[in-house]
Predict the 3D structure of the following.
Amino acid sequence: MRLNRRKCDTVNGVISAWQQQGIISSEEAARLKGTVEASGFDWRRLATYAYWIAGLSLAISFFSFVFDKAVLRIIEKIFHASDVLKSIVLALVGASFYSWAFRRKRSAPEKTFSNEFILIAGALACGGCLAFLGSALRSGRGHYPPLILAASLIYLALGWIFPSRALWVIGLISLGSWLGTESGYVSGWGEYFLGMNYPLRFVAFGIFLLAAYFMLRKSSLRHVGKPTYVFGLLNLFIALWIMSIFGNYGDMSKWHAAHGLELLMWSLIFGAVALAAIIWSLKTDDRTARGFGLTFIIINLYTKYFEYIWEPMRAEWMSSLRTTRAPIPRDFGAMAVSSAFSKLRGPSESETRGGL
C-alpha cells in the first residue's frame, strides 16, 4: 500500500503502539510495516492541479477569443444565422460532448482528466446555447438571471449524474452569479436587497452551501459534498473579509461617514468565524477548515493593521515631517495606539461636513 509520508508515519506509529502494548508480536508488526510504503511524490495531485489550471486557462482564452470585437465581426460575417439557430447548434454540440463523455466514463473510467475536459467543453457549449437563447427571447427588460439559473441547474444535474466535480463547481459558480444578478434586478440594481448589500448576501450564500454540505455528505450526493464545502467556505470568508472593511454599506459616502466601531464589529465577527473554523478543525481533524481559518484570520489581522495603524500613522508621520521637519519619532507604540483610537472614533463633525 502506497501512502503519502504523513499517513505512512501515522500507520507505522499505530503499529508500533500495538507492538508495545502486546496486541501484536514483533513478527506481525514487521510484516504489517512491510505492507506500507511511503510515496516519494504525489504525481496524481500535481496532475489534478495542472488539470484545473489548464481548464481555467481554456475558459479564459475561449471567452477572450469570443468577445474580441474583431473576432465577433468575423463570426458575424461567417454566420448570419439567427440566434435561435445558433442556440440549437450549440445545444447539439453540447449534447454531443456530454454523450461522448458519458460513453468514455463507461469504457475508460480511469481517464479522469480527459473525461472532465470533455465535460467542460460541453459546459461551454451549453453556456453559449443559453446566451444565444436569451438574446433571441430578450424583451427589452434585460432580465437575464433566469437563464443563469437554468445553466446552474443543468450543470448541477449533470455534475450529479456523471458524476463530475468540475461540472458541480461550475454549477455552484453559476448559482452564485444568479444570486447576485437576480437580487440586483429585484432591488432595481439598488444598494440593498432585504437590507443586505452584496457582500452580506454572499455571507448568507456561503452559510447556505455549508448547510447543504452537511446534508449532502450523508446522502447519495456525498461525492459532491467536498467541493460544496470548499466553495461555501470560500464564499463565506471572502464575503466576511469584505464586510470587515466596508460593513453593510452600499454607498461610499455613507461608508466614509461611518463610525469606526461599526466596522470593527464586522471585523470581530470575521475573526470569530475564523477562530470557530480553527476550533472545529482541531476537534474533527478537518484540514480544509483549519486552512481557511488560519489563512483568513491572518488576512483579518493584516487588514486591520493597515487600516487602523499603518495608514493613519503614516499620514501623521509624513505631515509632521512636512510641517516641522522634526526628527523621526521613536515612540512608534504610542503613535500606533493613538492612530488606532482616532480611527475608531470615526470622522469628526467638521470632516463629515467637509466630505458632504
About this structure: The longest strand covers residues 2-3. The CA atoms of residues 16 and 247 lie 53 Å apart.
